[in-house]
Each structure stands twice: as structure tokens, then as C-alpha cells.
Amino acid sequence: MAKQKKSLTFQIMIAMGVGTLIGILINLLFKESVIIQGFFVDGVFHIVGSIFVAALKMMVVPLVFVSLVGGVTALGDISSLGRISLKSLALYLTTTAVAITLALGLAAVVGPGQGFEAGAETFTFQAKEAPPLGQVLVEMVPANPFRAMSEGKMLQVIVFALLFGIAVTLSGKKGQHVLNFFNDLNVVIGHMVDIIMKLAPVGVFALIARTFATEGLDIILPLAGYFLVVASALLIHAAFSYGLLLRLVGGLNPLLFFYKMRSVQLFAFSTASSNATIPVNLKNVEERLGANNSIASFTIPLGATINMDGTAIMQGVATVFIANVYGIDLGVSEFLTVILTATLASIGTAGVPGVGLVMLAMVLGQVGLPVEGIALIIGVDRLLDMMRTAVNVTGDAAVTCIVAKSEKALHIETFNDRRALYRLEPESNSQ
Ligand code: ASP
Fold first, then answer.
1. Which of 154, 207, 274 to mutate to test the pocket of ligand 1 (most atoms within 8 A of CB)?
2. How many CA atoms lie within 13 A of 168 on its CB side?
């Protein structure tokens, strides 16, 4: 079983490596080849990659709804639900604020964008509006739960599932029948996710190969300073902020945590979507890190929607970069505004590819920087999106472990077991 366990992560890693190599080769040698571009990059790679992401997304709403109903019911009382919500919300917002502060600090010291040559006026960017906080609050309650599900509005699905789960608990014996059904359904959906995981190496290969074939590496060069500062801040935040949080607040071994997060991070990296990674992250925190479903079924989907530390880091560095390019000085009050806006903006925007740029438009607007500046960094955004999504989902899992531990809902033997059963591996599901 341990051998099988290794093989999925291993296969995905190989797929990523080969995908990167082939993608870069295509970008370097076959940029003009109609056959390669048409048949492979925009054909096979695009189709296979899209099918894989669609298959993952297909599982998100059913999985979140069914497992959250089961999770809330398992909690038993409403007061623990309130406590867990408060704890996770506080941790999510605090880590995001730390992330953006770190990013602003690092960017202020390194100063990316100073002496940047490209004329900003040659770029254009049409900003979409991020929703204001008041609207986010009102829209948390779905007027039509089926529409919420069909449109994948995660906060609305979470609210409906919470209420449903509470009502199941309050319904006594009758509720028990419903709960049994949901618990059985949860197992069935778990198997569906397992089946999709079989596609992972092929899907990841296609996604990565296409990204590198279209983006290439040369695009990074003119923006190397910006790219490196974002990448370093992401690394520092993931290693130190989460590491310290896990160790000091959770009393947990960060190295084991990171070791077990590898495949989730690879999924997040390949799909650039926290939302699409929910099924994998949920399974991983429950089955490999030992968090109880009653906590994880709530904190993981919530985190995918409201917790975006990696995205906040990009916004911090991008703000300083754009200010430098336009020669605008940012003072302490602007820095504080950036921290506040970026933290709050993350609540209302879902974890899907590219959403970070929408949030950035809001942040820039708040501090009076030209929103067109986004056009400067858009070239490297896809690659950074992949990296920051990996950090986003790592944050969701770290907070889940800490909240679970504080609620005595973390199976510590599983957490500490390096080889804890990995049911992402389809074959290992046959118990
Ligand atoms: N792609 C990111 C996520 O899904 C959001 C972003 O930064 O654009 O978490």
C-alpha cells in the first residue's frame, strides 16, 4: 500500500516535470508550427486539461454539500459550530494580513520596478469590479439554493448546508434517516473523487505542458524582479508563517505537514484554482493529516473562498511594483489601506484562476494607483497564479489542522504517521 501511496504523488510529479519540459521545448522550437500549436497545444493538451479541471470542479458542490451536512451533524451542537467559525475566520484573516504585510515589507526593501523601462501606456487592462463587502454579506444567503449550487457559489452553498445540517440535528429520529443517507452518499462521492484522481497524471501533464508552451519562460525576464519578490514572499510565508503557526499554536510538526501536502499543492499549482482543489484538499486533510470531517468539511471550502494568502502576497508586491514604475510614493497610510483592502477583498472573491487580478484592481483603486498598471504584470500572472494557489490551499489545510487540534478533532496518530493511508490512491480504497 505504501508503494501505491507513493506512486500517485510520484506520477503527478513526473507528469509535471515532463509537461514543463515539453511545454518549454514547444515554446522555444515550435512556436510557429501550425500542427504542433493547433493539434497539441490548443488541441489535445487543451481538451485533456479542461476535461480534468471540469471533472474536479464537477465534484466540488456535491462533495462540499454532502460532507458539510454530515460534518455539522457530527458536531452535535450549534455552539461548537459558532466557535469553529470564529476560530477559522480569525485565523484566515490574520494569516492573510500577515501575508500581505510580509509582501509589502519585502517589496519595499527590494524595490521591484524601480527603473522599469517598458512604457506603461503601451499596455491596456480592463478591470472588473470586485464586490463590496456589504453585498458579499447579503449574498451569503442564497435566495435560491439550487441556483447557488448550479452556479457554484461556495459561500451560499456553505450557508445552506450549515442550516440544513443544523436542522437535521434538530429533527431527532427523522433526521437520523436523512443523516444515514448523507453519510452513505459521502462514501459514494468519495469514490467518485478517487476515480477522477486516476486521471490526475495525464490531466496535470496536459495543463502544465500547455501553460509553458503558451507562456514560455522568456516572458519572465523583463519582470524578473517582480517575479522573484513574489516567489520569495510566497516561499517565506508558506515555510515560516505556516510553519510557526503549526508549531507554536497547534503544537504540530510542520515538516510532516508540508510533506503530506505535496500532492495537494501540485493539484493547486496545475489547476490554479483553490476551488477545483477542494476535493483533493479535503481528502488529504482528513485521511492523511487526521482532521475530523466535522471540522474539515467546513474549513476547507470556506478557506478556498475567503482565505487567499498567496493572492494577498501578489497584491502587496504588485502594488509596490506598480507604484515604483509610475514613480508614486506610498506612505504608511497607503500601506495600511492595502493591508485592509486586500484582506477584505479576499472574502468576497472565489478561488478561481486569475481572480487575484480583479482583487488587485480594487486595491490599486483604494490607494489611488493607476489600475492600468495591472497590464504590466499580466504577462507573468499565470505562472504566479499557479504558485500562489498552491500557497492558498496550504493555508486552508494549516488552519484546518490547527482548528481541529484545538477542538480535539485531530487524530494525532494519523498526523504523525508519515505513511498514513492515502485514499487519494484509488486502489487503496478497497477496504
Ligand atoms: N487562483 C487563485 C486561487 O484559486 C486566486 C488568484 O490568486 O487568482 O486560489
1. 274
2. 24
Backbone angles phi, psi at 353, to 5 degrees: -55, 135
Chain length of the chain: 431
Residues 6+ apart with CB under 8 A from 47: 206
Number of Cβ within 10 Å of residue 296's Cβ equals 31
Displacement of CA 150 from its chain's centroid (Å):
21
Q: DSSP letter string over 251-289?
A: ---HHHHHHHHHHHHHHHHHH--HHHHHHHHHHHHHHTS
- Residue 423: its pLDDT value, please? 46
DSSP 129-168: PPPPHHHHHHTTS-SSHHHHHHTT-HHHHHHHHHHHHHHH
Q: What are phi and psi of 291, to 5 degrees?
A: -75, 140
pLDDT of residue 125: 54
Q: What is the DSSP letter of 299?
A: H
Q: What is the CA radius of gyration of the chain?
A: 21
Residues contacting 172, CB < 8 A, separation 6+:
none
Residue 313 CB less than 6 A away from ligand 1: no
For 345-372, write each residue's pLDDT tens digit.
777 677 788 888 888 888 898 888 988 8
DSSP letter at 220?
G
Distance between CA atoms of 414 and 288, rounded to whole angstroms?
6
- Quote the CA–CA distance of 162 and 157 in Å, as a whole number: 9
In the DSSP assignment, the letter for residue 419 is T
Asked if 113 and 225 count as a contact pair (C-beta separation under 8 A), the reply is: yes
Q: Give the integer Cα–Cα distance in Å for 251 and 287.
A: 19
* Domains of the chain: residue spans and CATH: 2-416 (1.10.3860.10)
Q: Is the CB of 311 under 6 A from ligand 1?
A: yes
| Cα angle value 345/346/352 (rounded, 5°) | 120
Helix, strand, or coil (residue 291): strand
| Average pLDDT over the chain, rounded to an integer | 87
- Closest listed residue to residue 97, CA positions, set 312, 407, 364, 399: 312
DSSP 219: G
Give residue 274 CA to ligand 1 midpoint distance, Å: 6
